[in-house]
Amino acid sequence: MRNTVKLTAAVLAAGALTFGLTACGSDKDSASGSSDYSGPLVVAASPTPHAEILDYIKDNLAKKAGLDLEVKEFTDYITPNTATEDGSVDANYFQNKPYLDDFNKKRGTHIVPVVTVHLEPLGLYSHKVKSVDALKSGATVAVPNDSVNEARALKLLAANGLITLKAGAGSEATPQDIAKNPRNLQFKEVEAAQTARSLDDVDAAVINGNYAISAGIKPAKDALVLESAKNSPYGNFLAVKKGNEKDPRVKKLAKLLTSPEVKKFIEDKYQGSVIPSF
After folding, report:
1. Please, what's the largest Cα pairwise distance for the chain?
2. Which H or E run includes 180?
3. What protein family is recorded (predicted)?
4. Which of the listed residues 66, 112, 189, 270 has the most CB atoms within 10 Å of its CB?
5. pLDDT at 5 over 50
6. Confidence band, pLDDT 50/70/90 cuts, at residue 171
7. Sheet harboring 111-119: ordered strands across?
């Protein structure tokens, strides 16, 4: 139970079904308000940096705090929320508020944030050019295909003068909301987890911080342009199904995630590529 469990995309569907069936008769169905808070706190997380941060806590801080922590790694942005909703896991740590709001609205889930921990700046990267000025007319740019991260990617490009978005383009903006595209950039919409792998096939790609780090990219050093952390709504947080916020295990983890020790760990390990939000 103390080892991190790594789940690949190939087994997620089967795992979710199994968990869902076992959860049906479980007290972890938080809607009842009679949850059983015994046993380890099982948290779904993206491998980098979320699971790494949780593993640091598990190995260095949890025992002293009286917390039995189990980390399950997921490589997609959907299963952590559906698993939290159906009780397969107790909590998750991988997402930001605009993404969660959109997910809850579209899927009818009831996930709520507990505490914000860090920001992973979104960046534009390329294997073919060294600056945004070198992007040629008609260049192909890969962007995440989920609505929130695609809008975030387009806003990054707009903030750096590559495109202009229509007035009022919000958190669900798509390439159809581009008002001006002076370089006639072409957009390739791919799953967020695939953006880093697309770098050899496109002229540039907008990549989420966690996927950039997982691919060996150093956002603070390698990005052509990088999202500003100032007043950002995209901080990543610990989240649970509504009703489980008072779980004493969740409270312990929330306190540890925003401790001075974790802040130092994030700053030392990620060197500006992941930024503490507390």
Report:
1. 60
2. strand 178-180
3. Belongs to the nlpA lipoprotein family.
4. 270
5. no
6. confident
7. 5-6, 69-73, 41-45, 91-95, 236-241, 111-119, 275-276
